Amino acid sequence: MGLSAVTVLGVDRPGVIAAVTGSLAECGANIQDSTMTLLGGHVAMMLLVSGDLDPAELRKRLGAPDLVVTASAIDARRHFCDDGGGPEGVGYVLTVHGPDRPGIISAISAVLAADGGNITGMSTRLTGRLYVLIADVDLPKDVDVAALMRRLAAVGASLDSQITFRPVEPDLL
Amino acid sequence: MKGTPRQVLGAPHPVLSAMAEPVDPTAPEVVAAAADLLATLRNEPATAGLAAPQIGLSWRLIAFDAGRHPKARSRAGELVVANPRLAGAAHWNEGREGCASVAGLSADVPRATRITVHGHLPGTGEAVTIEADAFEARCIQHQLDHLDGLLFLDRVPGVLSLHTSLHSCDA
């Protein structure tokens, strides 16, 4: 059974998700991981689906006049971060907020990448003049976090932005 | 003293990211600022609290009135506190909050649901202790963060906790 990565983009309206997932169900595809959000009034979905249909057939079945659909076959890998991130890493949450300008994400992500930091989730929002970035970050255990925070603070200052970087504290119950 | 409503500043603004200065609660300019802060709060019916930096004053003054909010349990009423200090916090819980200085965003933020705050009343300078819980405790902690240059965005526990949805009442 093959695995496909499906993306759906279109103007948001009630029923988009029902239509997409209904089409997937009708053709026997099983949704594994998925995420959906609104980007500036557009619905954006990314789905990992398993089934016997090839990607071209999936695109055809999901096609709608107001939706842009892509589908690609991918390898069935369930663990993408075996070195540094994942269960061996340490989780942090990064918050950046300040005036909007080009290059904020690239500047911040470059600092994290230089230390082997892996951004496992990210959301950015522009509201008025305020640009907000929240990211979940996995760091290798041997990273000098204090030094990393100093570098992040310096980049934040150069962007006139405020940065907080704090550990995730999961409670195992 | 009757205050004058002022404009609520929106982020990004330098005063919202600065550590506010302690004040003399008996100083006439502080009493006037407290009256303005309260007048501004009354002028923002969807907002349960404000801190002086939100009206452009980097002073340690907060105003709140959580009594109208349906999630409120303790209700200290309409109050302005100078130099508020968190003395105790317990029973943490997540709740969705927004801010009059951050339009269009809200987030699920962990806060203590039972707190003790010490401070002084503007004018007389009388020491005051506030025992708050539930929504009122969240509201006060949100205002205390403003005095330290923090927004609720700085306490978001993860990507999925940030929302663009509207909120029923700003903390």
Automatic annotation (TrEMBL), chain A:
Domain of life: Bacteria
Alphabetized InterPro entries for the sequence: ACT-like_dom_sf, ACT_dom, UPF0237/GcvR_regulator
Membrane spanning residue stretches: none
Domain spans labelled ACT: 5-76, 93-166
Gene3D superfamilies xref list: 3.30.70.260
One Pfam match: ACT_6
Coiled-coil region: none
Annotated signal peptide: none
Name listed for the protein in its UniProt record: ACT domain-containing protein
Organism from which the protein derives: Nonomuraea terrae
